[in-house]
Structure prediction request, 128 residues.
Amino acid sequence: MDGVKKKILLVEDDETLALVYKQRLELEGFEVEHVNNGENALDMAVKFMPELILLDVMMPKLSGFDVLDILRNTPQTRNIRIVMLTALSQPKDAERAKKLGADDFLVKSQVVIGDVVARIKRQLDVNT
Prediction:
């Protein structure tokens, strides 16, 4: 990376999982902010202006789908890369995420953290 850390907003209500992801992403050289619900995600997206948001779907207050929809319809956040990371494995959920504008959709049970990091790097065009 060119000395400037790429910023990632991690939106995950499972604190244990969030900690694991945050530590791994920081080890990979990213600057990471973590919030644990949809409302905070919207606030932080505007304040932190990350290059990418790793967004859980099932969360308190606002679902990841609602957050995605709002972010895509807000001029300041419209172009942030958004990777959905969810326990939902139904094709209809992936289709809904794509329709709403997600850049990628990962099912937690089908990926390991290394896969998620690789997808993030691909989205951000970071050389591995």
About this structure: DSSP finds five helices and five strands in the chain. The chain has a mean pLDDT of 94.
